[in-house]
Amino acid sequence: MRFKFLEHTADIKFQAFGKNLEEVFKNSALAMFNAMFSGKVKEKIRKKITAEGKDNESLLYNFLEELLVLFDSEGFFLSKVIKVKIKKRKIEAEVIGDYAENYKIHVDVKAITYNDMFVTKIGNKFVAQVVLDV
Fold first, then answer.
1. What is the per-residue DSSP string for 54-119?
2. Into how many domains does the chain fold?
3. Cα distance between the two ends of the chain
4. Residues 77 and 107: beta-carbon distance below 8 Å
């Protein structure tokens, strides 16, 4: 399981899973875009993004925020995360997707929040929890 959605009174809450930090960040990005549109997104446009953070939570927040900025400013809609590299609280990622105008977006994500956010290792896997303001 890459991610699952959890009950939340007003916003969207999810947990993402991965065998390492890179995979949990990748699956968090997929969950955020899956909250907006659950169908297949074509792979037409490649983007490279970077973000930094003082800890894993702020790094995840800033990474997702960069993707949301691409969505809001350029209409970029994520299909998949091709690669992720995390080193010394900096993330570099290559993503692929299509223009959002080609899809019927179900939910408008306004922002990522720190509310209930965590990134932790449980046993041999990583888990991230995020609440999206919709």
1. SSHHHHHHHHHHHHHHHHHHH-EEEEEEEEEEEETTEEEEEEEEEEGGGS--S----EEEEEEEEE
2. 1
3. 24
4. no
Task: Note down the domain range covering 40.
Answer: 3-133
- Is the pTM here over 0.85, yes or no? yes
48-105: per-residue pLDDT in tens?
999 999 999 999 999 999 999 999 999 999 999 999 999 999 999 999 999 999 999 9
C-alpha triplet 103, 100, 12: angle, nearest 5°: 85
Q: Are 64 and 119 in contact (CB under 8 A)?
A: no
- 75: CATH: 3.55.10.10
- Give the residue from 128, 49, 52 showing the smallest Cα distance to 89: 52
Neighbours of 111 (CB within 10 A): 13
